[in-house]
Each structure stands twice: as C-alpha cells, then as structure tokens.
C-alpha cells in the first residue's frame, strides 16, 4: 500500500485528523489526537525494516511512565501483569523497552487502532483501582526490603511464637542480627496504624527490645489523632514509599543494619 492510501485508511477508519510526515526512507511520523492523561501525545512511528512495515513507540511509552514510577516498579507484580496482558491482547511486542506491532495483510488502520489501545492500556498502571493499589504497595515494600536486606536477616510477617502463638501482634518484617531487632511496619490506613500502636505497646509490656521503622502508603490519609498516638511509640517514619523516599529508606536501612 502506498503512502497516500495508508494515510487515507487511517483517516477513514480512525480519525480525520490523523496525518503522516515522512522522516527519511521507510519512516513516517504519525500525527494523531491520542493523549496520555497528562496531555502528552502518544509517540507513534510507522517504519519499514527488512521489507516489513510495523508501528513503534520507540520506547516513548515506558519513558513516559518513568516520570511517575521507577522502572523496577513495573517489572514485577501487579503492574507487570497489567502490562503483559495489555501487550498480549493486542499482539504488541516489547523489544527491550520499545513497543512494536507488525502490520499484516495491509491492515494499517486496524493495526494503528490496536496499537493505540495497547499503549493506553499500558499506562493504566498509573490508575490502579483501590484493591490493586493496595496490593502493589505491599509488593513494592516487600521487594525493597528483600533487595536491601539479606534473606538470613529478615523475616516477613513475624510474630512472637512464645508469647503470641496466634499471631495477634504481627509485624510486617523483622530484621535480626543487631543489638535491637528492627521492626518494620508497612501501613495503609487508620485501622492498621491502630493495630501497630497496640502491638508496640504490647512489645513494651513484654520487655521485647526493638527499634522501629514505619513506611506509610500515604501518611496524609491517616487521621491526625491516630497518627499522634502512634508517633508516641514509633521510631523512624516515612510518609510514603515512592519517589525520593525510596532512596531515603534504602539509606536508612544501610545505616542501621550494618
């Protein structure tokens, strides 16, 4: 199919405002109205390699995600599954960060429509529903601890089996092999903060030596009164897990567990 026919098929089947701009041999920039949520356009190029045409984002979609997420955050767990499902649904390949879709049987317009849908679905990881966001926070927390603390020094979901055989006062992670073990909490809501407060009071009553690190999913969502009571018994607090706090938490762990 020739260039004018390709452009016409895009306009007839998808949107009249789509246009193609040549950028060298076997390469066309596709101008279109499709946007990320922040207003940036999807980057889509029509290219020819080894006699075959395909669509590519040239790595722009994942680069766009990196503005709000660390790359490691979408390579594991819930986010990774969302991306894999989106790509497989629309037969899009991940070529070391570059997303591509081969054009078959001259179905240029159909392929472009599918490619746009795939790119938008990939960015859905920024808008996980409440349940998925909750699981992602825990996944991210566990992955960070597992990366920074050796397996022989950490115990996830720890509780004192002698004093608390039913696990009523559970800690998200305990770090051992230091004068005072480090109790780490990953807290998401008022109820969890209240439970952690009770647990720390109980450990104090039992005479269990400890130091604490708390990582909130979003500290601003915690009631001021609940947070105030928790602060009376808790040690180091981080208001969230992502962004610059990831590096701060890592630095804190390295300093305290030497």
Any overview of this molecule?
The chain has 258 residues and is of the alpha+beta class. It folds into two domains: 3-127, Yope Regulator, Chain: A, CATH 3.30.1460; 130-256, Trna Endonuclease, Chain: A, domain 1 (3-Layer(aba) Sandwich), CATH 3.40.1350. The protein is 40% helix and 20% strand. The protein is built from eight helices and eleven strands. The protein has helices at residues 3-13, 60-65, 77-89, 108-122, 130-148, 190-206, 224-233, 244-256; strands spanning 19-22, 27-31, 45-49, 52-56, 93-95, 98-102, 154-158, 171-175, 182-187, 211-216, 236-238. It has a six-stranded antiparallel beta sheet with strand order 1-2-3-4-6-5. A five-stranded mixed beta sheet has the order 7-8-9-10-11, sandwiched between helices. β9, α6 (190-206) and β10 form a beta-alpha-beta unit. α1 packs across α4 and α3 (77-89) runs antiparallel to α4. The longest helix has 19 residues, at 130-148. It starts with a helix and ends with a helix. The mean pLDDT is 89.
| Silhouette | elongated
Largest sheet: 6 strands, antiparallel
What is the helix/strand order? HEEEEHHEEHHEEEHEHEH
Strand order of the largest sheet: 1-2-3-4-6-5
Q: Which structural category do the helix and sheet elements fall into?
A: alpha+beta
> Can you count the helices?
8
Number of domains: 2
Radius of gyration, in Å, reads 25 Å
The end-to-end span amounts to 65 Å
Mean pLDDT: 89
CATH class of the largest domain: Alpha Beta
What percentage of residues falls in helices of 4 or more residues?
Answer: 40-55%
């Amino acid at each position: 199919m020739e260039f004018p026919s390709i452009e016409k098929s895009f306009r007839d089947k998808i949107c009249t405002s789509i246009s193609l701009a040549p950028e060298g041999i076997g390469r066309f920039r596709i101008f279109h109205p499709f946007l990320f949520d922040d207003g940036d356009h999807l980057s889509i190029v029509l290219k020819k390699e080894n006699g075959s045409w395909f669509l590519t984002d040239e790595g722009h979609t994942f680069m766009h995600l990196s503005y709000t997420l660390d790359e490691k955050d979408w390579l594991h767990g819930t986010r990774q599954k969302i991306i894999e499902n989106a790509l497989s649904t629309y037969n899009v390949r991940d070529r070391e960060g570059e997303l591509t879709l081969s054009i078959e049987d001259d179905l240029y317009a159909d392929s472009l429509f599918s490619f746009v849908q795939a790119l938008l679905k990939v960015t859905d990881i920024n808008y996980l529903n409440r349940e998925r966001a909750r699981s992602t926070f825990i996944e991210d927390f566990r992955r960070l601890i597992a990366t920074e603390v050796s397996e022989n020094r950490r115990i996830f979901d720890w509780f004192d089996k002698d004093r608390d055989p039913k696990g009523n006062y559970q800690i998200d992670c305990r770090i051992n092999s230091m004068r005072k073990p480090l109790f780490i909490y990953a807290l998401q809501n008022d109820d969890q903060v209240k439970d952690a407060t009770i647990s720390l009071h109980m450990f104090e009553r039992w005479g269990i030596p400890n130091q604490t690190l708390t990582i909130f999913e979003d500290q601003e969502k915690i009631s001021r009164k609940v947070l105030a009571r928790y602060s009376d018994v808790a040690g180091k607090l981080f208001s969230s897990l992502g962004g610059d706090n990831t590096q701060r938490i890592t630095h804190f762990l390295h300093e305290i567990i030497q």
